[in-house]
Amino acid sequence: MSHLALPAYLPSPTVNAIRIGPLPIHFYALCILAGIGVAMWLTSRRWARRGGKPGEVPDVVLWAVPFGILGGRIYHVVTDPELYFLPGKNPWNAIAIWDGGLGIWGAVALGGVGAWIGCRRAKASLPAFADAVAPGLLFAQALGRLGNWFNNELYGDPTTLPWGLEIHQMDPATGGAAAGPNGNPIVIGYFQPTFLYEALWCTLGGIAILVLSRRFRLPRGAEFSLYVMIYTAGRFVIELMRSDYANLILGLRVNTWVAGLVFLGGAVGFALAMMRARRAAQVQLHRTGTPALEDAGSP
Fold first, then answer.
1. Residue 112: its pLDDT value, please?
2. What is the mean pLDDT of residues 18-31?
3. In the chain, how many domains are there?
């Protein structure tokens, strides 16, 4: 398929993996690992400043990450089963996580279960840990979206904007772009780079939480609720822009509905956290005449 190139556009990689001997190293997996590393580093610093013990963050992460990856893949496969289980499809591809396909909702849900196990073993507070990890999660998700860039996936409608994303026809057998008769990579077209929009939104959201947590004494639970609200607000809009295949409910993508519902949950959580803090401050003021200073981040 041939398309006229735009005068200015964002290029996409023509390979999504490198090989070291017989072992393929997928860039998608490297982006996920880079995100986990950044989240661990930032969370460790924030946890230590809040009185956490050294080594607790890696101990919790050892439980949260495997659970999160498993949950993310299960959500993806359950919500898009036709990609793997219809006639002509290979069911074993359901475990081919390196080809892309992690549902953030399943990752956070089951990752939270892993974090709960890790916090119980470390005798640490799960709500406090969730607040400490909140901005790191957004930075990790931003880095993870770069994996979609390498895979030439998760893009929006065709566009002529100067930041339109060039998308190649990828060959799963080779891990690279399919070549045309002239030997050049086949270009499908130029599309809205929704992966980039989400990466930028997550980065700005992570910075916003860091700034707010430094300027204000946010009550326990507020930072994680902000993470939920920030991410889902952006995801709701970006899902409306995406043109890749997805199952629909009443004309909207499944993830659009989920993003809206989870946003409402985050908003309720944030409101409850603020109400609890205000109530505690009023009780403290009534009893002692001095305002309460809740250490929201204390483990």
1. 93
2. 87
3. 1
Mean pLDDT rounded to a whole number for the chain: 88
Give burial (CB, 10 Å; 0-12/13-18/19+) of 245. exposed
In a domain, 291, yes or no: no
Q: What is the pLDDT of residues 72-106, one digit of tens each?
A: 888 888 888 877 887 878 787 888 776 667 788 88
Range of the structural domain that residue 208 is part of:
17-213
Nearest C-alpha neighbor of 27 from the set 137, 153, 136? 153
**Does the residue 186 lie in any domain?**
yes
Tokens, residue 299: 């483990």
Could you give the count of Cα atoms lying within 13 Å of 243 in the half-sphere of its Cβ? 12
The token pair that represents 137 in the structure block: 């999660």
126-144 pLDDT per residue, tens: 999 999 999 999 999 999 9
**Tokens describing residue 82:** 């036709």
C-alpha distances (whole Å) from 161 to each of 7, 11, 70, 77 are: 10, 13, 37, 33
> Is 293 a domain residue?
no
Q: Two tokens at 113?
A: 């279960």
Residue from 292, 295, 269, 266 nearest 281 by CA: 292
Domain presence at residue 258: no
Q: Copy the structure tokens of residue 1.
A: 């398929």
- For the record, the structure tokens of 194 come out as 């929704």
